Amino acid sequence: MSRIRLLSEEVASQVAAGEVVERPAAVVKELVENSIDAHSTRIEVLTRRGGISLIRVTDNGTGMDRDDALLCLERHATSKIRTGADLALIHTLGFRGEAVPSIASVSRFRLSTREHGALVGTEVLVNAGKLEAVRDGGDAPGTQIEVRSLFYNLPARRKFLRTEATEASHVEHQLHLLALGHPSISFVHLVDDRVALQLAPAPTLLDRIRDLSGAELASELLEVPLIEENGIKISGYVGRAGVSRSSRQQQLCFLNGRAVENITLSQGLREGYHTALMKGQHPVTFLFIEMDPGAVDVNVHPAKREVRFRTPSEVRDTVIKAVRAALEGDRARWSGEFRAAPLDSHLRQPNSEQEIPHPDLPLPAPAPRPTLQIPPPRSTPLATPTSAGATSASSTSALPVVSAASGLPSELPREEEAEPAPAPVPETFRFLGVLGKLFVLMENASGLVLVDQHAAHERILFEEMQRRMEAQGVPSQRLLLPLTLRLAPKDGDWVERNMELLDRAGITMESFGAGTFKVDALPTFLKSEDPVQLLHDIIDDLRETNAQGARLRMGQDMIAKTVCRHAVKANDTLREPELVKLVEDLLRCDLPYCCPHGRPTMIQLSYLELEKKFGRKA
Questions:
Q1: CB 3.0–4.6 Å: which of 300, 310, 455, 471 could bond 601 by disulfide?
Q2: End-to-end CA distance of the chain, in Å?
């Protein structure tokens, strides 16, 4: 006797609805997307009890005639695609033809629609997927859909809904995403007949961001310069270095107007912000990507949240380039604000016994300080193993040494050899003193500036070492006893295809049988009690970055740790000329806003903020 049975149409509809309609927010998303596809310029959403009791979506789009109004309730009936080939060329938000019938099968459903210019419209009533009435309607041109008593016929699904406040917050989040993706459309959101959101058409994306997220966040955003590579266009706004969140909730990416989630985009954003954010923090982004619909698959999940790219590496590289361009482009503005306008003459009263030399002149060092040695590009094979099986490198000629006091070459003359001639005080800031042997206090035209001398010197040394490593390659040394590395099939295949990339990153290895590799050389700066586990971690890390930056990725982490040890510390006393030179060197960095660990290097307190603190202004 056969045990396989065909599901009834009613049960099949409820199963499909479970994929598309997870909660009231999913209903709002699907219906508003249909309104956007219908070329609406104004969309109004009314919800009661978080959307559990009532959801009403009204638009002024093209509307439908009676035949289309009835046909849209049939599963897989859609006006947006015709053949299977159209799935590769999707230009609309909706296309599956599942949303409306799925919603109608788990609610009391009402559809009222009228085309522009038509004398009469159509009203359709559906109860749990069963057609109850079709009659003439007299609503305004466009479409209005009411969804009442969601999941009333599925008690098991309804009891898994969260509280009304939680469901309402999910609805609000979906509307924010849709409003951000389409700033030219007016949105109104009524919660229990109270206006919760009212957005007029925004002239620019930044205006829509300001309307939704506030002027304070909008002022902390950087415009991403339009970048177009390999048919991929990226624009939008990203947060300045240091503007971050503990979750990815405000890490928003839009693909062809659709809010999407994709690990490739997350990796690109993380790599673009590398060394610009503290560990565990996530950037604030409003990134808009436009590309050929044929190069991306949006038909991955019925909810259409996830997408797949045909060439993910190209997308990731373009995202990295866009984020880096925005961060580095902010350097001119950042330096300009710090330098601001010249101070008034009465504020600049240099002490005749303590004049500040011009920042471009060489500065004396008060005393010899620890130096930071940059490893040579390649060294000879190791000579002898230690008792524990470790290796030691033969001596090689050293590269120029960088002084930890000022980041200048150590060959500069000492104080006893040459004393720089006094120079005029720079008109961009005035040195005030040092607080707690760590924070440098300076005054500019905007107010008070605090500089963390340790973080600032870390950034200067980090970029200096990085430039040398980029020019000379990652230094490595051969192992006296090669390591044997066994990898899973997926990891082994990646290593086989990226041998050259690993070699440029300082790891020399070759195939040694199925899934096994022999490691002959490692970067000189890698120190670990378990080098095999370290290699597994490195391979996992390199797989998530782009080919261009992979050879420097692990080098950057080690550089950050190294310069942290050699940079000036909190209790190191620097003279005034050294402190001024430190600030000038910081302003010349590519990313001067933060140290390699993501902490800020400089904080500006405006006169207005200080006056508010002292009650001088409200």
A1: 455
A2: 84
